[in-house]
């Protein structure tokens, strides 16, 4: 039994999910500020389509994630933390607390169907919430509204109203779900993944991790994949020597290859050509490249850097 094998199992990378409901029951959320990357993350976990009862909204770390509609309690739990964290920047942009509170019922009034940001800003101006469309104010106001549980953002980047009909849950429940999706992991990892301050994480209970043995699983993961983003300390699966090739700054992760949980290469795509740069011995990628090609609907060709 190895820690990388356990994490591969928890992330459904060695034991693919049957459908989106099965996947999100395990992993809880997928990073989704980049929709193609979210689709690649689902593919690597056995799911070919993101059609289903999923919601794209601001959640962990105040960033866009995909959640199952049954797990929207996460928004209620985390939202107040990110609303408080963003107050100073909102004020710098002229988004006072009073204006933000007036904006919430205004958004409920004007979001009669999914619309793009520019149209939403125009509709808000019509009801007295005037924002400079060339500034960061619209983005910060909409993030405030999302963290308040009022709206979400579709996979097509349109905004639409959100209705949360979940029983409230607490940090302990989030910790348990996190450990199911990422274990073995530490409270420090949980803090980095969730964005919650450590003062809220005292006294977390022990959680047992499911045993797992290496299966030889090989997966090609895209940028922003949750396999690495779920931890503060990634040393168990990514060597310090090769970390700069994967972690290039700003939370960006270069697409990478994992074998039995260890990151062994980075890759890039140029049309149908998949170029892989291995860190050592070349991994066996024929099946993964073929599956990636079918998923992307291209005649994928593997080359080595």
Features:
alpha+beta, 3 domains, five-stranded mixed beta sheet, three-stranded antiparallel beta sheet, 13 helices
Description:
By secondary structure, the chain is of the alpha+beta class. It folds into 3 domains: 3-161, no CATH class; 171-201, no CATH class; 218-304, no CATH class. Helix content is 39%, strand content 17%. Helix 4 crosses helix 8. It is globular, with a radius of gyration of 20 Å. The two termini are 32 Å apart.
Characterize this entry briefly.
The chain has 305 residues and is α+β, with helices and mostly antiparallel strands. It contains 13 helices and twelve strands. The chain folds into three domains: 3-161, no CATH class; 171-201, no CATH class; 218-304, no CATH class.
Q: Overall mean pLDDT score?
A: 96
Domains, number: 3
Helical content stands at: 25-40%
- Oligomer state equals single chain
Number of strands: 12
Distance between the ends: 32 Å
Please describe the biggest sheet, giving its number of strands, its sense, and whether it closes into a barrel. Answer: 5 strands, mixed
Q: Could you tell me the radius of gyration in angstroms?
A: 20 Å
What structural class results from the helix and strand content?
A: alpha+beta
What's the number of helices? 13
Strand order of the largest sheet: 6-9-10-11-12
Which descriptor suits the 3D outline? globular
The percentage of residues in β strands lies in 15-25%
Low-confidence parts: none
Order of SSEs, N→C?
HHEHEEHHHHHEEHHEHHEEEEEHE
Chart the SSEs and their pairings:
Elements: H1 3-10, H2 20-27, E1 29-31, H3 35-44, E2 54-58, E3 64-68, H4 73-85, H5 87-92, H6 97-110, H7 117-126, H8 137-147, E4 151-153, E5 159-161, H9 171-182, H10 187-194, E6 218-221, H11 226-229, H12 243-246, E7 247-249, E8 252-253, E9 256-259, E10 262-270, E11 273-278, H13 286-296, E12 301-304
Parallel strand pairs: 11-12
Antiparallel strand pairs: 1-3, 2-3, 4-5, 6-9, 7-8, 9-10, 10-11
Helix pairs in contact: 4-8
């Amino acid at each position: 039994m190895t820690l990388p094998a356990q994490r591969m199992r928890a992330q459904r990378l060695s034991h693919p999910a049957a459908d989106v409901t099965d996947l999100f029951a395990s992993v809880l959320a997928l990073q989704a500020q980049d929709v193609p990357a979210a689709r690649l993350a689902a593919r690597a976990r056995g799911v070919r389509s993101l059609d289903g009862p999923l919601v794209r909204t601001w959640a962990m770390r105040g960033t866009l994630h995909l959640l199952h509609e049954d797990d929207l309690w996460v928004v209620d739990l985390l939202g107040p933390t990110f609303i408080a964290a963003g107050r100073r920047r909102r004020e710098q942009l002229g988004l006072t607390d009073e204006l933000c509170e007036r904006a919430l019922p205004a958004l409920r009034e004007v979001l009669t169907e999914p619309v793009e940001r520019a149209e939403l800003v125009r509709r808000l101006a019509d009801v007295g919430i005037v924002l400079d469309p060339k500034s960061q104010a619209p983005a910060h106001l909409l993030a405030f509204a999302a963290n308040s549980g009022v709206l979400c953002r579709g996979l097509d980047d349109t905004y639409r109203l959100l209705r949360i009909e979940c029983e409230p849950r607490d940090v302990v429940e989030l910790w348990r779900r996190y450990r199911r999706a990422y274990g073995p992991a530490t409270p420090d990892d949980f803090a980095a993944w969730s964005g919650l301050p450590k003062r809220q994480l005292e006294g977390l209970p022990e959680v047992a991790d499911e045993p797992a043995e290496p299966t030889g699983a090989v997966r090609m993961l895209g940028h922003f994949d949750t396999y690495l983003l779920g931890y503060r300390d990634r040393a168990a699966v990514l060597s310090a020597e090769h970390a700069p090739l994967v972690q290039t700054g700003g939370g960006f992760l270069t697409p990478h290859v994992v074998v039995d949980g260890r990151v062994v290469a980075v890759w890039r795509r140029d049309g149908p050509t998949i170029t892989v740069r291995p860190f050592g011995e070349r991994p066996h990628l024929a099946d993964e490249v073929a599956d990636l090609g079918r998923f992307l609907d291209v005649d994928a060709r593997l080359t080595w850097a």
